[in-house]
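Sample intake sheet
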Amino acid sequence: MSGIPSDQGVYGISVAAQLVGMGVQRLRLYESRGLLEPERTAGGTRRYSQDDLYRLQRIDALLEAGLNLAGIAMVLDLQDENHRLHHRLDQHESDRG
């Protein structure tokens, strides 16, 4: 899928579940717990992006490491904030350079 931004929702829920080796209900659970926010079409159909699939793999790895869903939410929030801060720092450094 070259040329499609990694954050653009392109996969339906059943395809996304198959690609990451999880059940559809698990994806719905993660969404209900706030761990994942797939795009929605005008009709309300979920559309998962490549970034969403990567996030699902991270969730699975953290579960295997022994974290519960509340702990995973905290870790993902911290990782997301760390990523945002690094991005801002990179922008600041490039503006100065």
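Comment: The CA atoms of residues 54 and 78 lie 16 Å apart. The radius of gyration is 15 Å.
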